[in-house]
Amino acid sequence: MSLTEELKQYDVNVAEAVGRFMGMEAIYEKTLKKFPGAVESHEVEMYIKSGDTETATANAHTLKGVTGNLSMTKLYDGYVEIVSLLRGGENDKALTRLHDILPLQKSIVDCIKKYM
Amino acid sequence: MENNTGVEAEKKEKKDGKIAWTFVILINVLIAVIVSFAAVNYFREQSESRYDAAEKGFSSTMSSMGQVAYSYLHTEQTFCDNWATYINVRSGDMSADIACDFVMNVNTDQRVTSAIIYYDTMEGYTIGWDSYDTVSYKGLEDKVNGAFEKAETCHMENSHLHITSPYIDPVSGVLSIGFCHDLRLMDDDGNEESAVLVRILPVSEFQGQWLFPTGYEKAQLALIDGKGEFIVKFEGVEQTNFFDYISANNDIDSETLGRIKNNLATANEGDMRYLNKVNQDSCYSFERIEDGEEWVIIGYIARENLDVTPVDLTIPTIIIVGFILLMAVDGIYIITINRRLKISMEETKFASEAKTRFLSSMSHDIRTPMNAIIGMTTIATKRIDDKEQVGECLNQITRASNHLLTLINDILDISKVESGKLSLNPIVFSLAEAVGNIISISQPHIKEKDMEFEVHARGVHHEYIFADELRLNQILINLISNAIKYTPAKGSVRLDIEEQPSDKGANMVRHIYTISDNGMGMSEEFMKTMYNTFTRDTDSRINTIQGTGLGLAITKQMVDLMGGTIDVKSKKGEGTTFTVTLDFPIAEKAMDDLVLPPLRLLIADDDEIFLESASDTLKSMGVNADVASNGEDAVKMIADKHVHNADYHCVIIDWKMPGMDGLETVKAVREKVGDDVSIIIISAYDWTDIEEEALKAGANGFITKPLFRSSVYSKLNELLAFDNSEKPVQEDNAEDLKGINLLIAEDNDINWDIIQVMLEFCEITCERAENGQICVDKINAAPEGTYQAILMDVQMPVMNGKDASREIRSSDKEYVKNIPIIAMTADAFAEDIIACKEAGMNGHVSKPLDMKKLIKELRAALKS
């Protein structure tokens, strides 16, 4: 099973994403491999817990854009909500929502790392 | 030569196989025959030995019967001897009368009569149950004399049998035998007279004395004398002599008969095998009667009447039948296995040969574009300063690379299909757009070969379907490109799309795609295996055409995967028609709202089918269009309407028509009616070549066949503006943006990768600035005209997009101050967009990025 095939089980709309890469699946896969790094460098949970809402929002915003561009649909929906909640000052709810999607994010990151 | 050798070897192999096969069958049959023969023989021998045993039993029984006969005769003789002894010894001199009374008194057996016969006169008395009378034995001498003489000479010796031959008793007239004993009587004068006492017994009484034991009930018995004369006959025998009886019923010579006579005369007992009077094989057994005047008792029984327990053939029959069945079943099984193995071997052989052919073909197919790439690269390197030449080389490299990519994609596809990894990714898409793309992809090849290309859509009410667009495109492009490839120049290719109700559900629709050509067609032999991988028809013309032999295999697999069917009709030299039938879920987006206002429309085309389908399409949108089958008629009809002040709102004219073609018709219309009528040129061909000329002649627009509801609605609305909604823009065509250079402010690598790929695809070049500050620095440092626009991420480290935009807008340089800036952000709220505009940005695209929206924004920003 290829990376793109495997990712489908994690609600990644591969067809849409490959379309965004003008059908060039290889480049899509290459870009996907940058995702674990993007996740690591945009920590959200720690900043919410420490009360640094601004950084948490900025990082969640970045991940929202990245997951949207990579068509990680479920993850993207999660970050859309998290950004919205953080901007509304509802940090607890944002943290709860983050905890909802973190297992999925971990699965996707692990899956991608297998192919790195 | 190699082929001939191969054929010879194959023939020899087949011949050897047949010989081996025939040999195996013969051996099997031989074994079956030998086993069956041995079994039958064994059981026949068993049966014979049982008959032989029964015969021996019969022979033994006959020996006992001889004893019984002797005992009986001896008993009768004893009666006679006792009576005679009493007359001769105890009573002294007894007259004939007294002797007669005596015999009459002592006889207690009513079957028995007696006689006293004088030797000298052969006359005497017959003694009945209660009287006696005179009797004469004259004339019976040959029957009785033997016994009389024996009785006379041996009168002192009792216990010997003295029995007459069977004779007709002169008193009773019944065939009888007599037991004799010598008598001495006194006459009236006191003289002694010699006579013989005869105890007479009917032969019939005598015959009834023998009863055969169980098992021999059907046996028959006879008693013969030394001459073979029957004393007692077998039942129903006419002959009076046993030897005559044997001769009459058996084909034997005198020598054999002599042996039989000798045997019976000398042997005390014996057995023979001869036929009886009804031609049954019978066993005859004889026993000489002791002291019986050379009498022989003979019994016979037909062998078939012998009580023989038949050999039980049930189990052996079951075994033999089972054995034969086993051989048959094994044989059939082996034949089936052999056939399967043969098929498997042929398939393997075929696959192996196909792969060899494929590899050979592939190596050629890969080498050709690779050679082009290497060759063109070498030329470009050598002439690096000749921009035009380098450009041409790069174009050729691009074409060769694309071909190579197609080839590799085909291989990957078939590999995915064969490993079951190919899956569908259905999306909602417009069939009209998909078909348009397919047509535009096919156009260069159609044009290159100067072919006729027709596309018809009939009754397509559901243009938006939920399916895997990529795979559907692949199916149609494969079939169309095959049709183009295998049709000679100036031939014709046609695509028909028809919608029908689906039987798979109310929310489903059936699309039938028919791709037909008048090309070289396919052989029936090839059609049997055409969907197999790596197969191509064998034809000298085909060998010169590029192809991997994978296209049809992939197409078939895709159709199967989509739950559809693919049918083909083809005739060598006449062309091919593929029909693909697919059922799709109807997408929510319906075309029912595409209703035209009451327009006066005319369609001019020489293709009657197109006229019919286009009329149907327009009718379904609320307009009854007029039709003209040629340019001349169209011009007349348009002029006529004009005269009556009822101009057509729009006329749709085919580009290629016999006689007056589309361009000529447009010119003629403009001459007759001026600009009062909108004219659309319709064609399945690439109309870019004639675009300028057509516009100059007076055409207002172009539309591509087939006539889909959406495309005709859109074009008519564009020209006649009956719908107030925004005019459609060619959002996916970035031809006008080709060659521009953009500055991209984006801190995130992933987002940068995507935007870069998207822009490169549209042949737009770009440079990256990792944050707002770098962006400001780069634009300030760049010579005027370096960048045509900036794509600005909003949230960035060091300096965000909004601050960077403000810096840029506050620049002293006119070029920098006025450069279009488009925001890229994951925020799509109205306030975000307003904030971007307030910072000096001209447009906004949201993440995830959408190509069409990006092009639209770029186009709008550059125009402003």
General description of the model:
The complex is a heterodimer of chains A (about 120) and B (about 850). By secondary structure, chain A is an all-alpha fold. Chain A is built from eight helices and no strands. In chain A, helix 6 (about 55-70) packs antiparallel against helix 7 (about 75-85) and helix 7 runs antiparallel to helix 8. The longest helix of chain A is centred in the last third of the chain and has 24 residues, at about 90-115. Chain A is elongated, with a radius of gyration of 14 Å. The model of chain A has no long low-confidence stretch (mean pLDDT about 90). Chain B has about 850 residues and is of the alpha/beta class. In chain B, helix 22 links the parallel strand 27 (about 820-825) and strand 28 (about 845). Chain B has a six-stranded antiparallel sheet. A five-stranded antiparallel sheet of chain B has the order 8-7-11-10-9. A five-stranded mixed sheet of chain B has the order 13-15-16-18-17. Chain B is built from 23 helices and 28 strands. Chains A and B meet through helix 2, helix 3, helix 4 and helix 6 of A and helix 18 of B.
Q: What share of residues are in beta strands of chain B?
A: 15-25%
Structural class of chain B: alpha/beta
Return the average pLDDT of chain A rounded to an integer.
Answer: 89
The total strand number of chain B stands at: 28
How helix-rich are the residues of chain B, as a percent range? 40-55%
Q: What is the CA-atom radius of gyration of chain B, in angstroms?
A: 64 Å
Enumerate how many helices of chain B there are, as a single number.
23
Structural class designation of chain A = mainly alpha
In spatial order, strands of the major sheet of chain B run 3-2-1-6-5-4
* Count of extended strands of chain A: 0
Low-confidence stretches of chain A: none
Put simply, the count of helices of chain A is 8
Main beta sheet of chain A, described? none
C-alpha termini separation of chain A:
15 Å
